Every structure is written in C-alpha cells, then in structure tokens.
C-alpha cells in the first residue's frame, strides 16, 4: 500500500468510528507523519500502529491521535496543554485545530527533535518545555483543553485543577498495559463529568524530568 492509500485508510477508520469533523480529518491528511518518525522507520509512517522513537518511547497510533484530537472538541480558539510531546506528531495535529498548544516532555532529546520538526513545518503556535507533566504548567493555566499522551495511573487531579470553565481533559487512565481513554468535562457547577471513550495502550507517565537524556 502506498502512503496516500494508507493515509486514506486511517481517515476511513476514523470516519467509521464516528470522527467526521472535517478539520480533524484534514489535519490528519496534511501533517506528514513521516517527518516525526525516528531514523529507519520513515517508510512505516502510515502503518496504523504506535512505533518506537528515541528514549524507549513511542509515536502514537495515527487512529488514536485523530480520535483523541476529535474528543477534545476543538473550535480553533482554544489554549491546549499536551502532556508528553514525544515525537511532536500529536502536537502538530493539535496546532492545526487550536489557537495555541503548550506541550511538556520529560526527555530533552525528544523535545529538541520535536521542536526542530515543528520549526521545519512552520508551526508557530506551539510552546514547549522540558518539565514534569504531572505538575502541569501552572504559570500558563488555565487551559481550555488538556490531553495526556501517556497513561496516568489515577484520575489526574493536579491537571484537572488547571482546566478553564467548560474545559475538557482527555487521558488514558489506568495501569501499564491497557487503559481506558477517559474524557472529563468541567461543568458549570464545578463537578467533573467523566466519560469512557475506548480502551487504549499508552506508555506510562514517568516520574520527574529525565536527568541524562
Ligand atoms: N504525543 C506523542 C506520544 C509520545 S509517547 C507522539 O505523538 O509522538 C508519551 C510521551 O510522554 C513520551 O515521550 C514520554 O517521554 C512522555 N512522558 C512520560 N512521562 C512524562 C512526564 N512526567 N512529563 C512529561 N512527559 C512525560
């Protein structure tokens, strides 16, 4: 299968799963995933699979990236926080759908690569920092949307506290292996509504900033 057919296959799978937002589908078609792959994996960019990147991490599965982006219900005006920049692929998709994207990564090496990819693609509404995502980005809070691209073992209370009114947080919640993708919505009365979207497999949220990578 060539890369155009493979991309179309992912867009079709998203449509089948009920993702019909034309902006999400358009972002998935226009952001070149091959740019975000590690050396040696470029020609597998359009496989619908999570694939290895540096520091023992993974670039997320394209279907899941599209699904999570749609789950954030973006209109283009939001300030979004991403926990786990990784390759920078999910960040790039979000940059097409939101006003500004803040992203945190615990590995400097990954962050540097992601930053140079975003620069090369002229995505100028991304602000990134090497920091422990478990703490969020208090100086920049509140955020209209928050997305975890690593699995948090429990309900992410510290990050829920950084949501703006009517905000949405999407995160894989659960232990290693399989997690539930949960969507939290902050209601007007201050209560969080919780909704399970599907089962997913993500690398875990790790403690602190990596010292030597
Ligand atoms: N969105 C990425 C997915 C990368 S995998 C992509 O599309 O490529 C999840 C990322 O979360 C990894 O890069 C991992 O290093 C990062 N991560 C794990 N724990 C973290 C923490 N405490 N703070 C910040 N980033 C973290």
What is the gist of this entry?
By secondary structure, the chain is an alpha/beta fold. It has helices spanning 3-16, 22-30, 62-71, 89-95, 108-120, 157-160, and strands at 51-52, 58-59, 79-83, 100-105, 126-130, 143-148, 163-173, 179-186, 192-200. The protein has one domain: Rossmann fold (3-Layer(aba) Sandwich), CATH 3.40.50.150.
What does this structure look like?
Keywords: Cytoplasm, Methyltransferase, S-adenosyl-L-methionine, Transferase. It is found in: Cytoplasm. It catalyses: [protein]-L-isoaspartate + S-adenosyl-L-methionine = [protein]-L-isoaspartate alpha-methyl ester + S-adenosyl-L-homocysteine. The protein has one domain: Rossmann fold (3-Layer(aba) Sandwich). Helices cover 27% and strands 25% of the residues. The chain has helices at residues 3-16, 22-30, 62-71, 89-95, 108-120, 157-160, and strands spanning 51-52, 58-59, 79-83, 100-105, 126-130, 143-148, 163-173, 179-186, 192-200. The strands form two sheets. It has a seven-stranded mixed β-sheet with strand order 5-4-3-6-7-8-9, covered by helices on one side. Helix 1 crosses helix 3. The longest helix is centred in the first third of the chain and has 14 residues, at 3-16. The N and C termini lie far apart (36 Å). S-adenosyl-L-homocysteine binds next to strand 2, helix 4 and strand 4. S-adenosyl-L-homocysteine (SAH) binds at residues 57-60, 83-84, 86-87, 89-90, 104-107, 110, 132-134, 149-150, 203, 205-206.
